Amino acid sequence: MLLSALTALFMALGYTLGGSGGAVIALLVAAGMNLFTFWNADRIVLSMHHAREVDAASAPEFYNLVAELAQRAKLPMPRVYLIDEPHPNAFATGRDPQHAAVAATTGLLSMLSRDEVAGVMAHELGHVRNRDTLIMTMVATIAGAISMLANFGLFFRGGHNENGNSNMIATLLAVIVAPFAAMIVQMAISRTREYGADAAGAEISGNPRALASALAKISGRAEMIPNPVAERNPAAAQLYIVPVHVSELFSTHPATEKRIAALEDIAQDMGAPAIATPRQRASALAPAAPAKRRSSALDPLRRD
Q: CA dihedral in degrees (295, 85, 69, 293; nearest 10)?
């Protein structure tokens, strides 16, 4: 429903700027852009992050962990990528489960325990199973097209209206309101998909506590460690397991505390103990002291 609303908004903006012909052109452009991203989104995203593909030989611990989770989720084995960045994050991409890819940064793998990494990658496989990767790519494409169309309308239409001031006002309102409305719809879609992926990740990994602990740790570090890709391409922020920016009002993700609370409810339904107290969450956000056991299961990956 929300995706249809976004497409309708695109067409309405096209109609305002170009009449019925403009609406048809806008629909054709939206269809063309969605078709292009359907086939190319995974390559674009992975190239943007300079991700390198790994296998059982080059990163055995990480690759085998993803393979185990994919088997639990009854999904085809996705392609597995590493991103050599200290920023802790992960994402999934691909047009369907048969052409999916999952990626994680080396910063995330070095920060989390094996169970926490499993929770994060289960969350990403939840996106794949729910086909969120395709949905959010289409959403980002249409929202970007709305902004592009609004800019064209502002610069090339605003001063050439033959129907008087009323048409001028309608055009100005359209080009100002449409991008903001598109952003709101985009955030609404993204937030619902994150809750769904958290629930799927808890089911796939069987450990809501580990996913919640990982979310607490990652959200505490994500703001402190630069993310060059997100700084160059802010639209990439919606891909990650936690948002790059902490402002809940304009975030593509729900607040981390709300996600942890939802995972606590899932843990209780599964008969598991409560996930984390506020004190435990604060402790998770504090700088971690070096320890011999830290991410020992992933030590071969760090050496790679």
A: 0
Tens of each residue's pLDDT in the chain, 304 residues: 777 777 777 777 777 777 777 667 767 776 777 677 778 778 888 988 899 999 999 999 999 999 999 999 999 999 999 999 998 999 998 888 999 999 999 999 999 999 999 999 999 999 999 988 777 767 766 776 676 667 666 655 544 444 544 466 666 666 677 777 777 777 777 788 899 999 999 999 999 999 999 999 998 776 777 777 666 666 666 678 886 654 554 566 788 899 999 999 999 988 765 555 445 545 544 554 544 444 444 544 544 4
- Whether 257 is catalytic is no
Predicted model pTM: 0.72
3-class SS string, the chain? CHHHHHHHHHHHHHHHHHHHHHHHHHHHHHHHHHHHHHHHHHHHHHHHCCCEEECCCCCHHHHHHHHHHHHHCCCCCCEEEEECCCCCCEEEECCCHHHCEEEEEHHHHHHCCHHHHHHHHHHHHHHHHCCHHHHHHHHHHHHHHHHHHHHHHHHHCCCCCCCCHHHHHHHHHHHHHHHHHHHHHHHHHHHHHHHHHHHHHHHHHCCHHHHHHHHHHHHHHHCCCCCHHHHHCHHHHHHCCCCCCCCCCCCCCCCHHHHHHHHHHHHHHCCCCCCCCHHHHHHHHCCCCCCCCCCHHHHHHHHC
d(CA 252, CA 193): 10
User: Which amino acid would we find at residue 262?
Assistant: A
Output the six-digit token pair for 288. 């971690």
Q: Exactly one of 61, 85, 116, 124 is catalytic; which is it?
A: 124
